[in-house]
């Protein structure tokens, strides 16, 4: 299928676009700033500039599109809900979705399906079990979701339309969990308010599969709850997360303090709803992570020592595996792919070419501080994978696995890193810094590799 994704460069869009590409679909994406997509998107796509707030979608972007996935919208919890910010949150969804749907209405040959994001905020604050037939709630988020859905469903009689009432999406790479981790690492994570509020969550990988299910299953239309079958209350969530991270969670944040700190936006933390995915279950959807403990075990495996974190990235090249593998093994490229701000210089390599047990010594600068790094190459499988494991260096644990897969006439390179920040008692403060550095370094590295390999 040819699939248009709006907001593809966002957090969910990045995972979704990779999965759709690997499943064989061709992607068209829109962004207000398509030049920036190079650092976020991992797979090839045709990119168009479109600001959903500023008018109809360009017809050339929609031409020949079989399906549309609409994710674009001002982030809900990025900054305090001033009246201006609330207007942006609402209008980017209401007017933005209206502009998209109006553009689809003008097409002589319409796509077969439109899938729009929505959120469980639709139901307001409630402790009753809610399936898709549950009543709409009250409050700002409920109003936003109702306005958003009613725009998305405007062509319901002409295009199969699905609105995914998305729960709290969990993955340490972003969203709510990434925001919570620093507090838990610093051992000040705890129950929010009464802890009684419900949290209907979903593992990011399961959400991506829900979008695929909505795309392919022609029996599905209308609202679909994008949540795991076992919602939990905030107190249970806090205790399970702390247990998995092996940190205490005896503190709690009183409602008054959260209201003072976040204003009206504190409702995102203090309110919730108990949502169940009835529609998905009725259509035979199978959750990979139905229970929270399964999802947390995936993010923070018990087999890892406490404090170990994982980071992953991927990048596709329209080049044969052999050529891409050789590129990643070349000494001069090892230096060239890293951002210049790191001043990475290779000092010695124990063999002339990378191979099993090669030792590589580097000098680099981390936040201006000179660092010596020695790593060893392990699990060397030519044209398939290898790991570099830090023997001496700034981290307590660092293992970087490179995996090369032949995909759609090219090569997908996956980077999987297990790391543990240095610092003993200071680790809690260093970890978030490392996490954000890794994101920035890999985003820049991605652009540099693409340029170097294209030469
Ligand atoms: N993450 C969650 O837990 C969660 C839960 C419930 C619902 N959702 C919904 O699912 C969708 C995707 O979520 P996400 O976490 O991937 O969001 P995200 O990372 O914030 O990405 C959304 C994309 O929307 C575009 N965008 C941002 N502000 C905009 C504005 N003012 N007007 C128009 N476009 C704008 C951006 O694309 P460009 O900058 O490229 O234009 C951005 O990449 C969102 O609509 C979100 O509300 C997410």
Attribute tags:
455 residues, alpha/beta, Rossmann fold, seven-stranded parallel beta sheet, 22 strands, globular, binds NADP nicotinamide-adenine-dinucleotide phosphate
Give a description of the structure.
The chain is of the alpha/beta class and 455 residues long. It contains 15 helices and 22 strands. The chain has helices at residues 11-22, 37-40, 59-62, 83-105, 140-152, 175-185, 204-216, 234-245, 255-262, 267-270, 278-282, 292-299, 321-329, 331-336, 427-454; strands at 2-6, 26-31, 46-49, 67-70, 113-119, 129-130, 160-166, 168-171, 190-192, 198-199, 201-203, 222-226, 232-233, 251-253, 274-275, 309-317, 345-349, 359-366, 369-381, 385-392, 397-407, 410-420. Helix 4 (83-105) runs parallel beside helix 5, helix 6 packs across helix 15 (427-454) and helix 8 packs parallel to helix 12. The longest helix has 28 residues, at 427-454. The protein is globular. The chain starts with a strand and ends with a helix. NADP nicotinamide-adenine-dinucleotide phosphate binds at residues 7, 9-13, 31-33, 52-53, 71-76, 88, 92, 96, 117, 119, 166, 168-169, 175.
């Amino acid at each position: 299928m040819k699939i248009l994704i709006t907001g593809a460069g966002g957090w969910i869009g990045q995972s979704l676009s990779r999965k759709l590409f690997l499943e064989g679909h061709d992607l068209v994406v829109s962004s207000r700033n398509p030049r920036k997509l190079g650092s976020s998107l991992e797979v090839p796509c045709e990119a168009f500039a479109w600001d959903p707030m500023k008018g109809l979608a360009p017809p050339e972007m929609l031409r020949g599109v079989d399906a549309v996935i609409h994710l674009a919208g001002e982030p809900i919890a990025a900054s305090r809900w001033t009246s201006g910010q609330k207007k942006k949150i609402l209008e980017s969804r209401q007017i933005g979705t209206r502009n998209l749907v109006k553009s689809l209405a003008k097409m002589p040959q319409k796509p077969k399906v439109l899938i729009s994001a929505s959120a469980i905020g639709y139901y307001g604050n409630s402790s009753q079990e809610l399936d898709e037939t549950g009543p709409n709630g009250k409050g700002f988020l409920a109003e936003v979701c109702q306005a958003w859905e009613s725009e998305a469903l405007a062509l319901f009689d002409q295009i199969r339309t699905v609105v995914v009432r998305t729960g709290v999406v969990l993955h340490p790479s972003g969203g709510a969990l990434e925001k919570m981790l620093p507090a838990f690492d610093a051992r000040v994570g705890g129950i929010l308010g009464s802890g009684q509020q419900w949290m209907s969550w979903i593992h990011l990988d399961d959400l991506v599969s829900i979008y695929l299910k909505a795309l392919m299953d022609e029996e599905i239309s209308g609202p679909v709850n994008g949540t795991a079958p076992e919602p939990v209350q905030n107190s249970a969530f806090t205790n399970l997360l702390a247990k998995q991270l092996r940190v205490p969670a005896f503190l709690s944040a009183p409602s008054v303090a959260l209201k003072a700190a976040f204003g009206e936006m504190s409702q995102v933390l203090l309110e919730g709803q108990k949502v169940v995915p009835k529609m998905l279950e009725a259509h035979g959807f199978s959750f990979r992570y139905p229970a929270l403990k399964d999802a947390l075990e995936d993010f923070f495996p018990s087999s890892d020592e406490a404090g170990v974190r994982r980071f992953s990235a991927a990048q596709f090249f329209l080049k044969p595996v052999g050529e891409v593998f050789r590129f990643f093994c070349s000494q001069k490229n090892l230096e060239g792919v890293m951002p210049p701000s790191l001043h990475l210089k290779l000092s010695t390599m124990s063999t002339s070419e990378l191979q099993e047990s090669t030792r590589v010594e580097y000098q680099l600068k981390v936040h201006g501080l000179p660092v010596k790094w020695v790593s060893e190459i392990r699990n060397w499988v030519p044209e398939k994978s290898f790991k570099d494991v830090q023997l001496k260096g700034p981290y307590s644990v660092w293992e970087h696995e490179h995996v090369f897969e032949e995909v759609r006439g090219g090569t997908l390179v996956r980077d999987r890193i297990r790391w543990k920040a240095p610092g003993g008692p200071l680790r809690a403060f260093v970890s978030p810094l490392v996490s954000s550095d890794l994101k920035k370094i890999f985003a820049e590295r991605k652009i540099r590799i693409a340029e170097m390999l294209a030469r």
